[in-house]
Write a structure and sequence with these properties.
Elements: H1 6-21, H2 25-31, H3 37-49, H4 68-78, H5 84-87, H6 94-104, H7 107-118, E1 124-127, E2 144-148, E3 151-162, E4 169-175, E5 187-193, E6 199-204, E7 212-213, E8 216-229, E9 233-234, H8 240-276, E10 278-280, E11 283-284, H9 289-323, H10 325-350, H11 352-355, H12 361-367, H13 378-394
Parallel strand pairs: 1-4
Antiparallel strand pairs: 2-3, 3-8, 4-5, 5-9, 6-8, 7-8, 10-11
This protein binds flavin-adenine dinucleotide (FAD).
């Protein structure tokens, strides 16, 4: 097969979405994830057949070998529908777990957990945040994993474990080395099958009016003497935070790329509606100065967000995640804010239609309010970016 360049891939993805996924949106929005899960499975097989599967992975792992900046364009395109990333197997939290296990898994862990995940036969989740502790400062964790012979015994409570419902395994962050002098050396990541005894889903947590289901949900998990072989430790003991930093860096860039796709779709919906909606006998909504200002402001904000994300992605490619810490934090709060503004204007422009579930705007408005909270709240990223930026002034 001739190798496609990035522009061809984006065009192919756009066509795939228009023909296969956008027509399924209404069913998903009105009746939930499980109502479309079977047909999505067929679409996933089709995506494989069309050579679009896991585009971010190297060709040797069945992907398209895209760099982070090339993947940005594809991910943006996929973000235009809530179903895009899932159908090409690029969805969080699996994409982050694929990266984690690829980098740190043993041969056995790769065979059992990673390979079926890449093939899309199973799903996974990531359990770090706890209801009783600040997720913004995850060194404060109560979940423990104590050695018991050749096993770990895990005890604790997690919540907001996205997509745990129907997942086959979770990566859990638990304290294995409570005595470590460094607060960053106390926790480890452990691979836990979701059917391990002692692990239960307490509930799918209600979020913005619904509990969701399957992939589109967030669960509370309880670990009660949950026993897993110590071979399920991912990476070295006590290195959980180092691995989490590695996982969350590209993860934040992936979220920002997806949010730009959401902004573009919202922008299209706003402009299309404003250009057709007659609001007086001789004028359209798009004729109004205030709507023109929304269009211009949104366009400028989306363009600037995209350039910042590409800049951060390029820096990650050149200097790794740690070299791009400030840029990653900057885009995390900046793009999340633009996302809220663009969605809000689009909903306002559509009037009552904007708050219905006949477009994806209301779904995104409900579920992406959390963009300013998950993977680090705005405030933490602002503090972290400022700290990085001010460093070079320390020595003056
Ligand atoms: C939709 C969604 C999906 C999620 N998915 C996952 C998942 O899959 N796995 C997982 O482990 N976790 C997940 N989370 C959890 C998420 O990462 C945490 O909610 C986040 O880290 C914030 O932690 P917290 O909710 O405990 O808030 P807290 O840490 O209690 O903070 C509360 C608020 O205090 C403010 N704040 C915090 N620190 C500071 C500071 N230093 N200075 C000033 N203000 C501050 C912020 O405004 C913050 O929103 C998800 C959350 C949501 C909402």
């Amino acid at each position: 097969m001739t190798k496609l360049n990035e522009t061809d891939i984006v065009a192919k993805v756009r066509k795939f979405l228009a023909e296969n996924l956008i027509p399924l949106e209404e069913e998903f929005l009105l009746n939930g994830f499980l109502s479309v899960s079977e047909v999505l499975e067929e679409k996933r097989q089709l995506a494989k057949k069309e050579g679009l599967w896991t585009p971010y992975l190297p060709e040797s792992d069945g992907g398209l070998g895209l760099s982070l900046t090339q993947f940005a364009a594809v991910s943006e395109e996929l973000g235009r529908t809530p179903l895009g990333h899932y159908v090409l197997n690029c969805q969080a939290p699996d994409i982050g777990n694929i990266e984690l296990v690829s980098l740190h898994g043993t041969a056995d862990q790769k065979r059992v957990f990673l390979e079926p995940l890449i093939r899309g036969e199973i799903r996974s989740c990531f359990a770090m945040t706890e209801p009783e502790n600040p997720g913004s400062n995850p060194v404060l964790l109560d979940t423990s994993a104590e050695k018991d012979g050749d096993n770990y015994l895990i005890n604790g409570q997690k919540w907001f474990t996205s997509s745990a419902d129907g997942a086959s395994f979770t990566v859990v962050m638990a304290v294995t080395n409570p005595q470590s002098e460094s607060k960053y050396g106390r926790a480890s990541m452990i691979l836990v099958p979701m059917d391990a005894s002692g692990l239960e889903i307490v509930e799918n947590t209600p979020v913005m009016g619904g509990t969701g289901e399957g992939y589109a949900s967030h669960s509370e998990l309880r670990f009660t003497d949950c026993r897993v072989p110590s071979d399920n430790l991912l990476g070295p003991e006590g290195e959980g935070f180092r691995l989490a930093q590695e996982r969350l860096g590209p993860g934040r860039i992936h979220h920002c790329m997806r949010w730009i796709g959401i902004c573009e779709r919202a922008f299209d919906l706003m402009c299309r509606h404003a250009s057709r909606r007659r609001i007086t006998s001789d004028s359209l909504l798009a004729d109004q100065a205030i709507v023109r200002a929304w269009v211009a402001e949104s366009r400028a904000e989306i363009n600037s967000a995209r350039l910042m994300v590409l800049d951060a992605a390029e820096k990650v490619e050149r200097q790794g995640t740690s070299g791009a810490r400030a840029e990653i934090s900057l885009i995390k709060f900046y793009v999340a804010d633009i996302l809220q503004k663009v969605l809000d204007r689009a909903i306002q422009a559509l009037g009552a239609l904007g708050v219905t579930d006949y477009t994806p705007l209301a779904y995104w408005y409900r579920h992406e309010r959390a963009a300013r909270i998950y993977d680090g709240p705005d405030e933490v990223h602002k503090l972290s970016a400022a700290k990085q930026i001010l460093k070079k002034y320390d020595s003056e």
